[in-house]
Amino acid sequence: MNFRLILYIIGQILRAEGVLMIIPLIAALAYRESVWPLLIPILALLALGSLLCWRRPAKGDRMGARDGLFVVGVSWVVLSLFGMLPFLLCGAITSPVDAFFETVSGFTTTGATVLGATIGTLPSDLPQGVALWRALTHWIGGMGVLVLVLAVMPQQQFKSARLMHAMRAEVPGPVATKVVATIRHSAGIVYAIYIALTLIEMIALLLCGMSFYDALLHAFSTAGTGGFSNMDTSIAAFDSSAVHIVLTVFMLLFSINFNLYYLILIGQGARIFLSEELRYFVIAVAAATGIITLNIAFTPMYETLGVGIALRDAAFNVAAFTSTTGFTTAAYDSWPYLSQLILFLLMFLGGCTGSTCGGLKIGRLIILIKSSIRELRYTLRPREVRPVRAEGKAVEEDTVRGTSAYFALFFLMFAISTVALMLLDNVDLLTSFSAISTCINNVGPAFGDMIGFAAGGSFGGFSVGAKLLLSFVMLLGRLELFPVLILFMPAAWAKK
What is the rounded distance in angstroms from the CA atom of residue 187 to the CA atom of residue 167? Predict the structure, then answer.
């Protein structure tokens, strides 16, 4: 294990977190709030980050697969430990475990919250600066803080071959791809698209009547597909169809592989229609929206509101669940069971590879289904050699094998975590199953009313042990298992 290289990269990440925290600090100054809850962490992050970066890696230092997984797993835990300080220092959250849960939920873009009547603090009670930091954690975690560091890091510090291992560990999906030849330029392009879409959404929300602060905060939350809001009732607080429609559109836009946006920028937009993953994503969203609309339109809840409102709410919640953003506008837990089942399945489906979504990813599911069909054909024709094809080209066997292993490990960890939560808090199977589902898929909202965390509810009623377990599960889901699990392997800590 190359600890000098790892510490240097973690130092760069901490400095990036400190610089980004200046944005909510400006908001605190603008609203004439106390700046210490943000200023103290900023100074600590910059100081520690600079200390870790004091010794640069030697030219001969190389980053292997083990180093890449390790640095990603450790950096996200460290990010959360420092990121929780504003919540503690402002007094809104007094428990370190609650603050850690909220911060992990932010960086992993889950959107599950402990805020609520249980701990006596609502989202609207947060200082404006801290509330903006809470939403900004979504934006940082959505694309990945390491990708940001790669985008701004001087090119000569690392070779692309060294950094690809780390990028593979943080970028969602079965394969991490580069839009151009070098990792640094690829990261820069992806982040430029990410920033541009965020700004466009913020402008659209401003045109819908939101204040500048609310538009910026909700743009951060949508871009990271996280779902934190400064409103106690989430997006339901904005009684505006225009706001709901804009958020629906952008939740879906941030669910698409960012490489496709690059094709549009270079004048090859027609190629996006060849994307198999995008095609299945659009079909899934359209079908789910249509079925739910028909299922709820004639219920007592929507008989007086009309089919138009039913379609709006169905589209919004389908986008919220499949993008794993988790914003809420309607009491979906009161919808017919068919609609609830569809939303629950969308929670696992997630968006496209290379987006900011959680979930299993459509691209990974396509590979699994096609590889399973190939195995069935192999049973009939043992001598037939047929590669798995996705996106118009053959998928490498390492990727096929890794995808199968991922699904097996995912559901194994899911089952273990579900049982562990039931043992820790003595909750019923639905509550435990739903809580683990929403955390490992980084969605946020859940089903079940035993602890009161259905639509717009809070996770504050869980015990300390349960919150730590759920925090661990959120990290597992966002980093897609391997970078987190490798931290518990003795071989990962051994020297080379």
Answer: 9
Reduced to 3 states (helix: H, G, I; strand: E, B; else coil), residue 174 is coil
Instruction: Look at phi and psi of residue 298 and say left if phi exceeds 0, alpha if psi is from -120 to 50, else beta.
Output: alpha
Among 337-341, 382-386, 423-427, 479-483, which is the least confidently predicted range?
A: 382-386
| Contacts for 235 with CB less than 8 Å, ≥ 6 apart | 218, 229, 243, 244, 247, 316, 327, 328, 329
- The pLDDT tens digits of the residues spanning 44-83 come to 999 999 999 887 766 656 666 667 777 788 889 999 999 9
Euclidean distance between CA atoms 339 and 321, whole angstroms: 12
DSSP character string of 33-87:
---HHHHHHHHHHHHHHHHHTSSPPPTT----HHHHHHHHHHHHHHHHHHHTHHH
pTM of the model as a whole: 0.91
Give me the phi and psi of 116, to 5 degrees please: 155, -170
Q: How many other CB atoms are found less than 10 A from the CB of residue 1?
A: 16
Higher-confidence residue: 452 or 50?
Answer: 50
Q: What is the pLDDT of residue 153?
A: 54
Nearest to 216 by CA among 131, 147, 151: 131
Summary mean pLDDT of the chain:
86
CA nearest to 100, candidates 494, 470, 476: 470
Distance CA 340, CA 79 (A): 34
Per-residue HEC secondary structure of 442-478 comes to: CCCCCCCCCCCCCCCCCCCCCCHHHHHHHHHHHHHHH
CB-neighbour burial class of residue 384 (10 A; exposed 0-12, middle 13-18, buried 19+): exposed
pLDDT in tens, 143-168: 877 676 665 555 444 554 455 555 55
Contact 444, 141 (CB under 8 A): no
